[in-house]
Amino acid sequence: MAQHPHKANKFWRFFWQLLTVLAVCTLVLLIWLDAQVRHRFEGHRWTLPAKVYARPLELYVGKQLADGQLAYELQQLGYRAVQQLHKPGQYRLHNNRLEIYTRGFHFVDASEVSNRQEVILQAGRILSMNDTQGEDLHLIRLEPQLIGGIYPSHNEDRELVQLDDLPAGFIQTLLAVEDRSYYEHLGISPAGIARAIAVNFKAGRIVQGGSTITQQLVKNFYLSAEQTLWRKLIEAPMALLLNNHYSKDEILEVYLNEVFLGQQGKRAIHGFGLASWYYFGQPLNELALHQTALLVGMIKGPSYYNPKRYPQRAKQRRDLVLKTLADVGMISETEMQDLQTKPLQLTKVTQYSRYPAYMDLVRQQLQQAYKANDLSNQGLRVFTTIDPWAQYQANKAMKNSLSSLTKQYGEQNKLQAALVLSQRHNGEVLAVVGDRDGGYAGHNWALDDSRQVGSLLKPIIHLTALASERFHLLSPLDDSPLTIPQPDGSVWQPANYDGQSHGVVPMYQALVKSYNIANVRLGMSLGVDKVLEQLSALGVKQNWEPYPSRLLGALELSPMEVNQVYQTMANNGFYNPLSIVRDVTKANGQLLSHYPYQVSQAADLQATYILQQELALIGRQGTAKGAYAYLPAEQIVAGKTGTTNDQRDSWFSGFSGRHVATVWMGNTDATPTPLTGSSGALQVWARLLSKLPYEKDEVSQPPGVDWFRTNATTGAIIDADCEGLVLPFNQTRPPAKANCGN
After folding, report:
1. 593 is catalytic
2. Same domain, 129 and 177
């Protein structure tokens, strides 16, 4: 029976209406997808973390380098030791001659170009430098080491590269493995999809994908990783739209920077630029073909083929990629076999997060001027003062010292430690150890914790006394027993560490031997408030009640604060805030912030100079003489040990040459330890300083100060040919003069 015409017309009307609706919906979807494709591709593509750099290694004639420092820093920068230089990133260090092919770098003040250069050394000191034409060079400035980043919440990281940054053969390798018809298809490859379907059907499971590089980019750049029907439906049209709007090179460059290539803890490694640094410690343009093959091979499964975790598996995958290159005629069979015999050559250098305590300081300083969002997604470049060699030696000194203490005293499970190292005359912080495990990113004992400082306060008493012009280094001090009534009706009876009193002693000896009673009497005669005022002027902005016990360090400071105080004393009484960040720039090098050197006079010049000599006597004769078990006799050590009640805290803070360092050790719960300042903190300090380049600091003797030979017993100046200790004095108040025997 024939269908009624009315019903047939109704069906077709519905059909065309449905088709129209579907067409409109499809059009709307395509318009929306097109907008999404263009918006992301042409806008702010990635949230780029701020990159944090160390200070650059600067070489100049006369510079003193520590033993092993030059080779270490070159290795940390990813320079390769070779017999003959062919390209940037290579060096040859033989005997006292360094040949180096530098990479160049865009600094804030100037750009250093890549160049071959030669450096001649003698006993670690640079004698001459020249270029390939034999022209003398005044300065060689290597690129700064990248030490970390300030990441967004999703912890993605990448080092952006352009097509011009790729090594020879990179594109050919990538396309041979991932998408051989990339430059011919329209974003999707029907032939590739058909081939994948056939292979998968034959295998009975999914063994091959048909995605082009463009589709891979769509999946990673625009869509989630979820295997949903919706994602599959829109992946192909988005690839077509992307291919329609942008050139093949533009799409490929974004892919190179987006592709996921591994994980370092919470940090996701995206792009070949960052992967090259992470796995090989080199920029991408320096990679050899077998290294390129390894990275390209990892695209298939970054976790499965991770060469750091599964080296054998990764090598098999790399060798398969090399065979593919031979199959397509890119390399010969002989070249393939030669490349397959090469080791993976992974870097042993940890590229990121090696300095968690120092990074805490960087964040603290930057957060005063920058929003967290700007630091984590604008790709800023942060140039800091950290010295990679000094930081390495600081971590090593801490580890070795703790190992020695364990052998001597047994396991000290609760013992913690911290260290701060700075440059003597500008206050730049060179190294920070925030925990006994230098790589620990937890509590920062150098910055976040304050402990009683003990005898570290005694030099401030002496500085106050010398500045008053009422005292000199031979002024007699009473070290006899002392009882001091307290406001609550109790009494305070300070005692010396040895439990003895020593009668009348010259002022310098009270500091060198760290006599508690004599120093308390001296401080009280000056006024506790005056001593605390001097402490504040040296860089500690805190307010304490002027109790007499403050004079023996009954106040709490962090290692960073202590180092600030001793920094000012080492810098001839000139206060400059400890600095961490030098400059901040945009990703393109445009300067955003410069942190200039700041200085103000905080202590009397003559008094500070005399105190420095007094602190040097502590190194020669007093509680710090143990440092010379590690240091040569000609090196000057000036500083003070500190041991708090019941040996709860072990301190040493002092300076030598051009460095100032502070070390603290103590139990996490402030219970007693077996350590004094000499047996604990001083050992770390001396181990560190023994590994740093030593250049004697020629401190100018200020006007108004003279040196005289003295008789410590009588407190008098004696003739220069008599026997006695030579000490400095302020000309306005020198001791009386006497004959040799009087």
Report:
1. no
2. no
